[in-house]
Design a protein that fits this description.
The complex is a heterodimer of chains A (149) and B (780).
Chain A lengths: L1 E4 L2 E4 L8 H9 L17 E4 L2 E4 L12 E3 L8 H12 L9 H14 L5 H7 L9 H14 L1
Parallel strand pairs in A: 1-5
Antiparallel strand pairs in A: 1-2, 3-4, 3-5
Helix pairs in contact in A: 2-3, 2-5
Chain B lengths: L4 H4 L19 H4 L17 E7 L5 E7 L1 H4 L4 E5 L24 E2 L5 E7 L2 H9 L2 E6 L6 H7 L2 E10 L2 H7 L2 E9 L11 E6 L5 E5 L4 H12 L6 E5 L13 H15 L3 E4 L2 H7 L6 E9 L5 E13 L5 H10 L10 E9 L13 H19 L3 H8 L21 H11 L2 H14 L3 E14 L8 E8 L5 E5 L8 H13 L6 E3 L2 E2 L14 H28 L6 E4 L2 E4 L2 E4 H10 L5 E7 L4 E3 L4 E3 L3 E14 L5 E10 L7 H19 L31 E6 L24 H14 L14 H15 L2
Parallel strand pairs in B: 1-12, 10-11, 14-15, 18-19, 28-29
Antiparallel strand pairs in B: 1-5, 2-4, 2-6, 3-5, 7-15, 8-13, 9-10, 9-12, 11-20, 13-14, 16-27, 17-18, 17-24, 21-22, 22-23, 25-26, 27-28
Helix pairs in contact in B: 7-8, 10-11, 11-12, 15-16, 19-20
Chain lengths: 149, 780
């Protein structure tokens, strides 16, 4: 089967029910997307599928054939993604960094849907876990990216 | 793009990112582009095996039989690691040999590693692990601290710290209170779980990539298990996806299993625990059962305190002795104890062996001390902040000595607490909360201020040393290596900023390199908040040695006095000459000057004797205070944190942006510990909260709506690196304000009559039960 990841087509050998995360990390070799919990709870594995956040650790690869998959590696090629990344660095959000690729993708998806989110909108959308507790920075960075948009 | 400015810069340019400036985390851009490499991202060598552990399904049992036939039939099965496959010591206990890498015949907690299975793929390894059949003979487990106390089950003897005569002072005190207080444990929940990747080298050597805060210990314990010298094992870690203490002693088992499989098969081997395995099989923060009796006068001043702190060690000792010691050091919070008897017990249970976690027992002991003072204030009907203030240490005189004999020489809470109270409008808002509560029958607010004092240094004195390695290359670029590890706390950057400041160059010219036991040996864990104190000083020492040689060279070459040589703005001034740092490095190299140095630091002043339970275990203290305001739905127990004001002392900050991030994050993590994070074992001793679906860490929704964090203007009285102070752990204790604000709101539910009984964590369920209990007790 073929998969379109970051506007590039890959021929995939994995079984149809293999989680997308393993295909991205092991077969394609893009390691910016992380394994966190394996239960679609923590959000470290977040990628965008047709612009929507998707928990790649529980998404069978066959279900995303024919869709546009975007990972952290090329998020800066997206106009909104670029603003999010810049705001993230400016606000010095990351500490350990492990959850941050998922956070950046979730924030990008939010701002594409809602260019001016309120704190409540952010709380609803940003359900990714961060154990370093960088949430204050995350909220600030999303507001900053929103102002830039 | 490579930085070519090194070669070309000849004009002075203000050096960027020195110690003391808010320079961005060195990995920030890599974190948000996906190019920051964690252990799991290292490209695997062809032929790499994958490992799955087989965990026990009993809390206490003898292993009767292990049947591998099912596993061996799984396609892709390669081997199983049993105790017979361990050529050296089958134990990863760093202090005491009571932590088997692979269980021998006795199981002592549900989730203990019985064996490890290696496969060609992770799927094969997991399938094979599931097919292993084990039979057990069940033994009676001890599953609670209460039961361990009944049976006097311990992993180590108790220790008592004393000041004055607690029994005599208790007998004559005008008021006395006693109580029992439970403080819960906590899972680290680093987003990157435990992982190790072992790659065999020639001559039986082993290279191990390990997600560890303590590479040297992993090196030593892997070599011990392989029965080879330390020099044959190299451990490297560039960064961790969070550590928080969970990767201090625990990674050695993971690394040893990977290395033992690699040795047995001659192939690279990788072990990455799944989330539930990580939560079930590796240690957590100790939960405590605390019993106390306190005697005090009319003002609320403590005259006598007797306290027994019972920690759940779990099945083995691990770091429990030191964790409980720290709980005891901090059991008086920031209050002078004229007559105290503080006893710490290390209770054994058949549960996972608890370990280091940000604060290392300090938060549990400190919370107990705060609970005591809070109960005094309620009993006397006094403003709790006033009772806290009358118990503060004095700045000088008799009331400065701790119950373990150390004088407090840097106490600043007399200034810091009023400063926070003023900026957070404490008095005004306390009154507003009272007024709100009078009019609001269901929703009740609580608002509290709690102070923090935290002792800095490893209490195991020998850990208070560090090494660093600095090279200046002939193009003027600098390489830095030291024993500290990067887990998100920004240590690598802070130390690089120190080195950049010594040479007067941009921090971007200092290459930060992965911690590696072959570069700097015999290092200590990056723990006890000591990372920048220790490694910053060691790196400064290394840089200064090179600088001295450069100064001597420049003075000779340009005919000036050594004191006329200055390093600033990426340039070096030598008398009338002014050249770029790169040009000086080149010239010095041509003149055969050594441009590499190993630096070293050992913390002065500290000593501690467990035999006499006294000494000077801490180099200095850090301070802070927090005001938290919460609102509670008294019909459901649900609550929200409305506002948090934090004022925290980091001395003269090495990097204010990173320090603010540490303070915010520690407060969030501490709030999780005291509110939503509940570990729950069933009657068979099986942890049932082993995934984010059942174990609730804070999310963006849980942070304060209004979150104000300020650094307190101060400098360390001790000559630490640029007079800064440690930051990792102390702000974790700021979250105590949330706990006591919730207790305040519980009290408000029945019009501040009676004293609520609230244990930690104050989950919504606990809050509701506390309200109900109070209603029944007061007949409302």
């Amino acid at each position: 089967m073929n998969l379109v990841i970051n506007n590039k087509t890959y021929e995939i050998d994995s079984d149809a029910d293999t989680p997308l995360l393993w295909v991205i990390r092991e077969e394609v070799g893009l390691t910016g997307t992380k394994f966190g919990c394996g239960l679609a709870q923590c959000g470290a594995c977040t990628v965008l599928v047709d612009g929507e956040p998707c928990r790649s650790c529980v998404t069978p690869v066959e279900s995303v054939v024919g869709k546009q998959i975007t990972t952290i590696e090329t998020i800066e090629e997206d106009a909104v993604g670029k603003k999010v990344v810049e705001a993230w660095v400016e606000a010095q959000v990351p500490q350990c960094g492990y959850c941050q690729s998922g956070q950046v993708l979730a924030a990008t998806a939010l701002l594409k849907r809602n260019p001016n989110p309120s704190d409540a909108d952010i709380a609803d959308a940003m359900v990714n876990l961060c154990r370093c507790g960088t949430y204050n920075g995350i909220v600030d960075a999303i507001h900053a990216a929103s102002r830039q948009a | 793009m490579p930085d070519t400015s090194l070669k070309t810069a000849a004009v002075p340019q203000p050096a960027k990112g020195h110690a003391g400036t808010a320079h961005a985390h060195d990995s920030a851009e890599r974190h948000v582009s996906g190019s920051a490499v964690y252990i799991d991202d290292i490209r695997e060598v062809a032929g790499t095996l994958h490992i799955a552990p087989v965990l026990s399904t009993r809390a206490h049992a003898r292993i009767l039989s292990v049947d591998l036939s099912g596993a061996e039939a799984v396609p892709g099965f390669v081997t199983a690691l049993t105790p017979a496959d361990v050529p050296g010591v089958n134990n990863f206990g760093a202090v005491k040999l009571d932590d088997p890498i692979i269980a021998e015949d006795l199981i002592e907690f549900w989730g203990q590693v019985v064996l490890a299975v290696a496969g060609e793929t992770l799927e094969a390894a997991r399938a094979a692990a599931r097919a292993v059949k084990i039979t057990y003979e069940d033994l009676e487990p001890i599953l609670s601290i209460e039961r361990a106390i009944e049976l006097d089950a311990t992993v180590a003897p108790p220790l008592t710290m004393k000041s004055g005569d607690a029994a005599a002072a208790m007998a004559t005190a005008k008021h006395r209170l006693s109580g029992t207080f439970n403080v819960g444990g906590q899972d680290h929940f680093y987003l990157e779980g435990h992982i190790a990747y072992a790659v065999p080298q020639e001559e039986g050597d082993m290279l191990v990539y390990s997600s560890t805060q303590h590479p040297t210990e992993v090196q030593h314990l892997v070599s011990r298990s392989l029965a080879i010298p330390d020099h044959a094992v190299t451990v490297e870690v560039r960064r961790m996806g969070g550590g928080f203490g969970g990767k201090e002693t625990q990674p050695a088992q993971i690394a040893a299993i990977a290395a033992l499989i690699a040795r047995k098969t001659g192939r690279p081997a990788k072990l990455r625990l799944d989330r539930d395995e990580d939560m079930i099989a590796t240690g957590k923060r100790h939960d405590f059962l605390i019993k106390y009796e306190v005697g005090f006068d009319d003002s609320g001043r403590i005259e006598a305190l007797a306290m027994d702190l019972h920690a759940r060690a779990g099945y083995s000792s691990d770091l429990t002795n030191a964790v409980v010691d720290r709980a005891m050091f901090h059991a008086g919070s920031c209050y002078y104890l004229s007559n105290a008897r503080i006893t710490g017990h290390r209770n054994k249970t058949h549960t996972v062996s608890n370990t280091a976690f940000r604060g290392f027992g300090g938060p549990q002991g400190y919370l107990a001390g705060e609970e005591v003072v809070d109960e005094i204030a309620r009993y006397l009907g006094k403003e709790p902040l006033e009772v806290r203030k009358v118990n503060f240490y004095d700045r000088e005189g008799e009331r400065t000595r701790t119950h373990y004999g150390q004088p407090v020489e840097d106490f600043i809470l007399h200034e810091l607490v009023p400063a926070l109270a003023e900026q957070a409008e404490y008095d005004k808002r306390r009154a507003e909360v009272r007024a709100f509560n009078e009019k609001s029958p269901v929703l009740k607010k609580g608002l509290y201020l709690t102070p923090v004092q935290f002792g800095i240094s490893f209490t195991a004195t020998h850990f208070n040393q560090a090494g660093a390695l600095v090279h200046v290359y002939s193009d003027g670029s600098v390489m830095l290596n030291h024993g500290g590890t990067e887990m998100g706390q920004g240590l690598y950057l802070k130390v690089a900023q120190v080195v950049a400041r010594e040479f007067g160059i941009d921090v971007a010219r200092v290459k930060i390199t992965a911690t590696n036991t072959s570069k700097v040996p015999n290092t200590s864990a990056t723990a006890a908040s000591s990372g920048s104190d220790l490694n910053g000083m060691a790196a400064q020492d290394a840089a200064r040695q090179i600088k001295e040689r450069l100064v001597a060279f420049a003075a000779g070459k340009y005919g000036c006095a050594p004191e006329e040589v200055r390093f600033a703005d990426n340039m070096v001034e030598a008398g009338a000459e002014k050249i770029s740092f790169a040009a000086l490095a080149r010239a010095a190299y041509m003149a055969r000057t050594q441009l590499s140095a190993a630096g070293f630091y050992a913390t002065p002043k500290i000593h501690w004797s467990r035999e006499t339970a006294s000494g000077h275990p801490f180099y200095y203290f850090t301070y802070g205070a927090a005001v938290a305001e919460v609102i509670v739905d008294t019909l459901t127990g649900e609550y929200r944190l409305l506002r948090a004001d934090l004022l925290h002392d980091v001395g003269r900050s090495l990097n204010p942006a990173i320090d603010i991030g540490q303070i915010e994050g520690a407060f969030v993590q501490g709030t999780g510990w005291l509110t939503s994070e509940e570990l729950w074992w069933d009657k068979a001793g099986r942890l049932r909260t082993h995934a984010p679906s059942t174990y609730k860490i804070p999310t963006v929704r849980d942070i304060a709506r209004d979150f104000r964090v300020t650094l307190y203007e101060n400098e360390n009285v001790e000559p630490t690196i640029h007079r800064s102070k440690a930051v990792g752990e102390p702000p974790f204790l700021l979250a105590n304000a949330v706990f006591f604000a919730l207790k305040d709101a519980v009290g408000a539910a029945i019009g501040y009559k009676g004293s609520p009984k609230l244990d930690a964590p104050a989950t919504p369920e606990q809050v509701l039960m506390a309200i109900e209990a109070l209603r029944q007790a007061t007949g409302q």
